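Lab notebook page, bench 4
Experiment: in silico fold of construct C2
Operator: M.H.
Input chain length: 99 residues
Purpose: comparison with the prior construct
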Amino acid sequence: MKPYADDLDDQDFKRERQKARELRQSPWWKRRCSKGRCHYCGGRIPAAELTMDHIVPVARGGRSTKGNVVPACKSCNNRKKQLLPMEWEAYLHRLQSSP
């Protein structure tokens, strides 16, 4: 697994985007979304409005696999951006501890 986007070439990105498109069409993904829950905030979201988020972003070395993608609301997905799980947790902790 390559840790930085600089190590990934255009073919790697294209391949991972294609894998993500295929996963989005799979029965497995449709079942995940049918639960209507955002992985990050736990909010109830209509299945059609859930997005696919890479827990470890492709740009940071993640892959489009069942173990690395989760349904997320657009708000959480936009806030998470390219953060790794430990960086996302630190971000949430800072939000909770700020006045």
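Observations: Residues 10-24 form the longest helix (15 residues). The chain has one domain: 5-97.
Next step: discuss at group meeting.
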